[in-house]
Design a protein that fits this description.
This protein has about 160 residues and is an alpha+beta fold. Helix content is about 30%, strand content about 40%. Helix 2 packs antiparallel against helix 3. The longest helix has 18 residues.
Length: about 160
């Protein structure tokens, strides 16, 4: 039996895939970026940390330059993909926290990478939408996140 929570998680995972699919170079890039634009709240914020002072973007200041890189030949054979992650849902708010990878070439040079992204969601009259995203890339001295057991995980052992 499918529950409302199952349907919510499925909808959220589709948005996660939409987010990562937007960052694929080549034919269809503008369409994929537009699809992401459509599922971001108009006032969504996107934050890049990556060991630097956080760079905070609104929707257009984030998407426009990335779309340009994806279509002008600067980034080729480029794609981002979601890895392992978890979804938490409570009422009309939700969160995906997970790993991601990126592959491709920038200015002809390989530019692989990986990191962790956090995507926040809210339920609207039109369905779930992305309200915020933040990420940090892997780098020396920074280990991938470790899942910690929840209180219920610990208590279930007794």
């Amino acid at each position: 039996m499918t529950t409302d929570t199952d349907r919510d998680v499925d909808a959220i995972l589709r948005l996660v895939q939409c987010f990562f699919a937007a960052f694929t170079s080549g034919p269809g890039a503008p369409t994929r970026v537009d699809a992401l634009r459509a599922v971001l709240l108009p006032a969504a914020i996107i934050v890049r940390t990556c060991g630097q002072e956080p760079a905070v973007h609104d929707v257009e200041s984030f998407l426009a330059p990335r779309q340009q890189l994806l279509v002008d030949g600067t980034l080729t054979d480029f794609a981002e993909a979601a890895g392992d992650g978890r979804v938490d849902v409570f009422g009309d708010v939700a969160h995906w926290f997970g790993r991601y990878t990126k592959t491709g070439r920038m200015h002809g040079e390989p530019c692989p990478g990986s990191g962790t992204k956090s995507l926040q969601f809210v339920r609207t009259g039109a369905g779930w939408r992305i309200s915020a995203a933040a990420w940090d890339d892997d780098r020396p001295g920074l280990l991938p996140p470790v899942s910690r057991p929840t209180e219920s995980d610990i208590l279930s052992k007794y």
